[in-house]
Write a structure and sequence with these properties.
This protein is of the alpha/beta class. It has a single domain, classed as Rossmann fold (3-Layer(aba) Sandwich), CATH 3.40.50.720. The protein contains 8 helices and 7 strands. Strands 3-2-1-4-5-6-7 form a 7-stranded parallel sheet, with helices on both faces. Helix 2 links the parallel strand 2 and strand 3. The longest helix has 28 residues. The relative contact order is 0.14. Belongs to the short-chain dehydrogenases/reductases (SDR) family.
Length: 258
Amino acid sequence: MAEFKGKTLFISGGTRGIGKAIVYAFAEAGADVAFTYASSADTANDIIADVESKYGVKSCAYKLNILEPNTYKDVFKEFDADFERLDFFISNAIISGRAVVGGFGPFMRLKPRGLDNIWTATVDAFVVGAQEAAKRMEKVGGGNIISMSSTGNLVYTPNYAGHGANKAAVETMVKYAAAELGEKNIRVNAVSGGPIDTDALKAFPNYEEVKAEVVARSPLSRMGEAQDLTGACKFLCSNDSSWLTGQTIVVDGGTTFQ
């Protein structure tokens, strides 16, 4: 897509799953790509080398602890040293493992600490990241901001109350950001994915049960793949969606209707 050439994407959590698929999709379309990683610099560097070799674009990666959202400010300073402009920002990084203990589980087992961590990584991180992105987009005449979400706030998913509630919250924050950033020619939307077959989903203790349920519910009779969300992201960052802001696009294989 010619309209992506000469522009720059910054996405949080770009080394695996949905984030990695988006990095490759935008690079293939001609955009320079910046992304964050949580721990593995080697993995990030491998992606940089592969993307630059395949698509002839510039790529850089930055370490970010999503549980400390204010460090986005330091990361964006590094970004400024590497790139002259920012056109697209996608808030995608999530947390898992020990950080969500007390936040991932049945309602009666939820604990404030785990819930607070999910809020920090989902809502606070979106706010700080989007604020920093908007400052840079304003300098180039506008841009597009996306928060990745999930249908866990629309359809009951076992053990997902903590995440689902925060996805609902971030989708509301998207609407407020859209209302206030429109005057700067910055559009803000969300992409809500149904269960996607990634490492994060495979970490669910009932993964096989969830997978079977998704396949049974979907009219397309399959699980979603990370690449299934890239088209919606590219659409929201393209001129084809120039009058679309403050919305959530659901990409779920039809599972929320069943």
